[in-house]
Amino acid sequence: MANCQPTLCLSLSLLLLLLCSKPVNSQQPQANISLGSSLAAGASQDYWLSPSGDFAFGFQQVTGGGRGNSFLLAIWFNRIPQRTVVWSANRNELVPDGSTIKTGSTVKLTKDGSLMLADPSGRQVWGPNGVGPGVSYGVLYDTGNFVLTDRKGVVLWGSFDQPTDTILPTQIMKKGNKRCTEVISKYSSTNYSTGRFKFMFQTDGNLVAYTTFYPQTVRNYAYWASATKSTGNSVTFNESGSVFLSSDNGTILLYVFTNQEPTQDLHQRLTIDHDGVIRLYAYPKQSSTSAGRRWPAEWTALSFTPADICGLMRADTGSGACGFNSYCQIEDAQFPNCKCPNGYKFLDPSDESRGCLKTFPPQDCSSSAGEEDGQFDLVEMVNTIFPSGDYEYYQSISEDMCRDLCLSDCLCDAVTYESASCWKKRAPLTNGYMDQENTGKTLLKIRRQNSTYSTAGERKKNDQSRKLMATAGWVLLGSSVFVNLMFIVGSCPWRKKNRRMNRVGDESDEAMESANLQRFTYREMESATGGFKQVLGSGASGTVYKGVLGERAGELVAVKVLDNMPERDGHDVREFATEVKIIGGTNHKNLVKLVGYCNEGQHLLLVYEFMSNGSLADSLFGGGEGTFPRPNWYTRTQIAYSVARGLVYLHDECSTQIIHCDIKPQNILLDQGMTARISDFGISKLMKTDQTRTTTAIRGTKGYLAPEWFRNVPVTAKVDVHSFGIVLLELVCCRKSFLLDFEKEEEMVLVDWAYDCYSRGKLYKLVEKDEDAMEDLKKVERFVKVALWCIQEDPSLRPGMKKVVHMLEGAVLVSEPPDPSSFMSAI
């Protein structure tokens, strides 16, 4: 998104501008629509015109899809054969027709000044929001804005204030305007109901395009953004056809789109289309040679963004640019095509965005599943990947092994293979896309043709062949590791006084090598960090520096240097070995990735991928130099989901359960896309799969520690749940859990204040300075209730992290939490 072309960025900004402006003072005199005027849906096609006749307001008939004679109350371009709708009132609830006002659906500007759309029974289907008393007449301007005004001509409501999927010239979107903040796409080219994409001008000054949790309009995944946080105040689509972003004092910060065509001969509109692409369109007003060039008799896209809608869809949830089990491909430079893989067909041939379904019975997972062996093949889809939906991941294996892993797993529907890495995926497959730049491939499992009739001998032969290949592969891989380990062991010095520390070093080296990590020399680390100059952070175990790996084309890294240990036999060495074993064996998108290490003499260093947005503490509490902007409400909710999923992986999905022991904002890092990654496993506690409790010395940070740390009792993974609950409250409220110098004493301890606000029904006090959160109080309440359950003093009352995720997502009902009884000595 940050690499979009200037014209593309311009068009997106233009879209925002269009959403929210009032008509300018230079409008021509309008023919007023008096109180008591009405229109009826039906064959007569009565409508109200703007003075020039360019726009009309009335009923448009919608056909197809079994809708019969249904009508949309709309505004459209009236002088072109394609009567293109630019605004609609009842996009999600069409009304039936009628030959007269008495029997049909009507829209009426009533005597008391109300604009009301009613069905044949007289039930109100739609009316404009926020219109007070005093309406004197209505006007449809030549800009396409239908307004209600008082007797002095002051606009009380306008269609520009409540846009649907289109912005028109002279519309202005202003930061903080509650009535004009977003446009939502149509579902399809012929279905005007709300679709799967929305475009917003956020209160932080950023223009962002999102997918939605369809059929809800709640935003899901940001696939485009203008990166204008804290600077943008308004977006304007002017009459010259340019779109630009302005600051508070009117200074133009950015031209989002600059029009090169004479606009007097063109109709223009900016639309977020049903495929998620934002396009600036033009149509000639007079002839095909208008505006000094030949124009086709149709809408022409002058510019569009993003350029690659297919490749930008990476959300863990939602159907993305195309539906489930389908893949997306850009074929004519701007329009995405949705396609079904071999063995699949469109769920609805008339609506390709609904996705695809299998044309064969899936693999049987019952007790007699052995009869299915040999009945499935993996079909290769070159340059095609499905970036989300993984449930298992393997490194350093061959493609044949990857194939066998999927064929022998009845839950596996496909694998993506790239650079000796293998990702298993189960249905439905999501966000697939084909592009020549994709170096990976997808191997899709489909049932063999006529496989039901294959002989038992053939199935047995195929099964034995695959098993023999898999066994041979694993034996060769195991032999290679064994030989390497023997070489390492044989080359180690065995002097008695160093035996213990060499053993620690050998174990850590073996762990890292098995995880395919790179070993660096201390001199290489000195060079990479420029002599350890730029400090990113520090803690009890050491200091973290920013570095650059030259051999990896300038890859940024974070180098953690443990304190110097001349004897190499203390707590820090054990901590180093622990972190080696833990991180070397983990792989999850919500954990910081370990790139390599240095274990040389007294120098113990770990090399991590660099997180460009620092720690959550930096953003949430205004850390250090204040270079990280505070995340908005939506981003904070996504961070909460990410941290929770990372803890689920540590607690439930690793072969050895891992208790992190120090979950806090400083140990939650944010990557370029503001995805949260859990870091710093240096004090983690490992437990075998048959263990549930362990006894250890106090570990962690005051303010986030669970009460059981102070009671000399065995701890469980519930200590991480407690810490997560504190972090969750901090995410909701954007403040630290304890503020000694807080101006209001009752708000000093966040846990107590949060429970007090919850119990008194005043949760809004926690987020009253956050406009986005104030508009989403149901989710605020759910998050606070989850946090209060997580921080219960009795560990048995706290939910496990899997349940926490389900509670946060709304999949599980969150019951009323009891008073958590804050444990003050933990602060």
Automatic annotation (TrEMBL):
<dbReference type="InterPro" id="IPR036426">
    <property type="entry name" value="Bulb-type_lectin_dom_sf"/>
</dbReference>
<comment type="similarity">
    <text>Belongs to the protein kinase superfamily. Ser/Thr protein kinase family.</text>
</comment>
<dbReference type="Pfam" id="PF01453">
    <property type="entry name" value="B_lectin"/>
</dbReference>
<keyword id="KW-0732">Signal</keyword>
<keyword id="KW-1015">Disulfide bond</keyword>
<dbReference type="Pfam" id="PF00069">
    <property type="entry name" value="Pkinase"/>
</dbReference>
<dbReference type="InterPro" id="IPR000719">
    <property type="entry name" value="Prot_kinase_dom"/>
</dbReference>
<keyword id="KW-1133">Transmembrane helix</keyword>
<dbReference type="InterPro" id="IPR051343">
    <property type="entry name" value="G-type_lectin_kinases/EP1-like"/>
</dbReference>
<keyword id="KW-0472">Membrane</keyword>
<keyword id="KW-0675">Receptor</keyword>
<keyword id="KW-0723">Serine/threonine-protein kinase</keyword>
<keyword id="KW-0067">ATP-binding</keyword>
<keyword id="KW-0808">Transferase</keyword>
<feature type="domain" description="Bulb-type lectin">
    <location>
        <begin position="40"/>
        <end position="161"/>
    </location>
</feature>
<protein>
    <recommendedName>
        <fullName>Receptor-like serine/threonine-protein kinase</fullName>
        <ecNumber>2.7.11.1</ecNumber>
    </recommendedName>
</protein>
<dbReference type="GO" id="GO:0016020">
    <property type="term" value="C:membrane"/>
</dbReference>
<keyword id="KW-0325">Glycoprotein</keyword>
<keyword id="KW-0547">Nucleotide-binding</keyword>
<dbReference type="InterPro" id="IPR011009">
    <property type="entry name" value="Kinase-like_dom_sf"/>
</dbReference>
<feature type="signal peptide">
    <location>
        <begin position="1"/>
        <end position="26"/>
    </location>
</feature>
<keyword id="KW-0245">EGF-like domain</keyword>
<dbReference type="GO" id="GO:0005524">
    <property type="term" value="F:ATP binding"/>
</dbReference>
<keyword id="KW-0812">Transmembrane</keyword>
<feature type="transmembrane region" description="Helical">
    <location>
        <begin position="472"/>
        <end position="494"/>
    </location>
</feature>
<keyword id="KW-0418">Kinase</keyword>
<feature type="domain" description="Protein kinase">
    <location>
        <begin position="530"/>
        <end position="809"/>
    </location>
</feature>
<keyword id="KW-0430">Lectin</keyword>
<feature type="domain" description="Apple">
    <location>
        <begin position="365"/>
        <end position="448"/>
    </location>
</feature>
<dbReference type="InterPro" id="IPR017441">
    <property type="entry name" value="Protein_kinase_ATP_BS"/>
</dbReference>
<dbReference type="InterPro" id="IPR001480">
    <property type="entry name" value="Bulb-type_lectin_dom"/>
</dbReference>
<dbReference type="InterPro" id="IPR024171">
    <property type="entry name" value="SRK-like_kinase"/>
</dbReference>
<dbReference type="InterPro" id="IPR003609">
    <property type="entry name" value="Pan_app"/>
</dbReference>
<dbReference type="GO" id="GO:0004674">
    <property type="term" value="F:protein serine/threonine kinase activity"/>
</dbReference>
<dbReference type="InterPro" id="IPR008271">
    <property type="entry name" value="Ser/Thr_kinase_AS"/>
</dbReference>
<dbReference type="GO" id="GO:0030246">
    <property type="term" value="F:carbohydrate binding"/>
</dbReference>
<feature type="binding site">
    <location>
        <position position="560"/>
    </location>
    <ligand>
        <name>ATP</name>
    </ligand>
</feature>
